[in-house]
Specification:
Helices cover 15% and strands 40% of the residues. By secondary structure, it is of the alpha+beta class. It has one domain: Jelly Rolls. The strands form 2 sheets. Strands 1, 2, 3, 5, 6, 7 and 8 form a 7-stranded antiparallel β-sheet that branches. A two-stranded antiparallel sheet has the order 4-9.
């Protein structure tokens, strides 16, 4: 599927979940866990399996490197702060605050240049039977994509399943 900026409401289960989230008061969120992936930090701010919302912050810099994908998660990303270039299946998409975009589980993606850092909500729908954790732990691709030993450490804590998913060294 081609990545596109979202101009209209999404009328499927994930789109309806994202709309429901925005209609709630922030005080009703159920913060679940924070993750340190090195240049990327995230906090699970709400979880209703198979859905969850992850607040992700990316440091300014040249981006995340090699493409990766999250094989059990479809997402809608909503940019809150900063600017970045998202590269999905080889296509560059400039992203700025207020932009929303979809990344499907089969999409190979990475961040290109991140100007001044960026923060976004990641609305996620996880496969049935897969317990939501963090998109950064549901990973296929080069472990260097995130450019940090913190990411490798977290993946190892999750167990050995990710080793068989790695497609690049």
């Amino acid at each position: 599927m081609e990545p596109t900026l979202i101009q209209e409401p999404q009328h499927d289960a994930l789109g309806e979940f994202a709309a429901r989230f925005f209609s709630r008061a922030v005080g009703r969120l159920n913060f679940a866990k924070a993750y340190n992936f090195g240049p990327v930090q995230s906090v699970i701010v709400h979880r209703e399996p198979p859905f969850q919302v992850e607040l992700v912050s990316v440091k300014a810099g040249p981006g995340a490197g090699e493409p990766h994908r999250h094989p059990n998660v479809d997402t809608i990303e909503v940019c809150l702060l900063g600017q970045l270039v998202l590269i999905v299946n080889g296509k560059s998409i400039p992203i700025s605050p207020g932009n929303s975009f979809r990344v499907w589980r089969q999409d190979w993606h990475t961040a290109g240049m991140v100007l001044g850092g960026a923060t976004f909500y990641s609305f996620q729908q996880w496969d049935d039977g897969v317990e939501p954790t963090s998109a950064g732990l549901n990973w296929e691709g080069s472990l260097l994509s995130i450019a940090g030993p913190e990411h490798i450490k977290l993946l190892r804590q999750e167990g050995d399943w990710w080793r068989t998913k790695r497609t690049k060294k």
